[in-house]
Design a protein that fits this description.
The protein has six helices and six strands. It is an alpha/beta fold and 150 residues long. The longest helix is centred in the last third of the chain and has 18 residues. The two termini are 25 Å apart.
C-alpha cells in the first residue's frame, strides 16, 4: 500500500499509517517530490519509496491520499485509489469525479477494515491488471459493509 503525503502534516499521515500497520497491512510512504530530503521523513514510521510515481503505480495495489492527483494515475492503471476526505482542505471529492473511493477523515477505521477485507496485502494474491476489477469490487464491498455497521 502506498500513502501519499500531499502537503499535510506528518501527524495527519500517522492517522492513516498507524491503524493500517496495527492491522498488519504493509505500508509504504511515497513522499511528494517537494518533500524529498525533509528531515521529518525519518519519523514516518514505515518504509519510504523514493522512486517515480510510475514505478509506485506498477508496484503497489492500493493508493491513499487526501488531494493528490496520484490517485487519478493509480485509478487509470486499474489500482485502488482512496481519498481521505477532509473538508478543511477545500478540495473536490474524487468519487464525484469518478476516480477514487472516498472515506471521510472522521471514519478512517473504514479504510483499515476495507483493506483487510482484500487479503491482497499478504502476498497470497498478486494483483494484476487482469484481475484489478475484482479486487476493486471486493474493496468497494468492504466499504459498503462498513457503512452498514456505522
Amino acid at each position: 500500500m502506498r500513502v501519499d503525503h500531499c502537503e499535510v502534516e506528518l501527524a495527519g499521515d500517522q492517522e492513516i499509517i498507524d491503524p493500517l500497520k496495527m492491522a498488519g497491512v504493509p505500508v509504504v510512504y511515497k513522499p511528494h517530490p517537494g518533500e524529498i530530503g525533509g528531515a521529518y521523513l525519518s519519523d514516518v514510521g514505515c518504509a519510504l519509496f523514493h522512486g517515480r510515481l510510475e514505478d509506485a503505480v506498477a508496484e503497489f495495489d492500493v493508493f491513499v491520499s487526501l488531494t493528490s492527483t496520484a490517485l487519478m494515475e493509480a485509478s487509470l492503471a486499474g489500482k485502488i485509489s482512496v481519498q481521505i476526505y477532509d473538508a478543511a482542505f477545500c478540495c473536490e471529492r474524487f468519487d464525484e469525479l469518478g476516480y477514487a473511493h472516498v472515506i471521510d477523515e472522521k471514519q478512517i477505521s473504514r479504510l483499515t477494515e476495507a483493506v483487510r477485507s482484500l487479503n491482497a496485502f499478504d502476498n497470497s494474491e498478486i494483483v494484476e491488471r487482469s484481475n484489478a476489477a475484482s479486487v476493486s469490487e471486493r474493496f468497494r464491498q468492504g466499504l459498503c459493509s462498513m457503512e452498514k455497521v456505522l
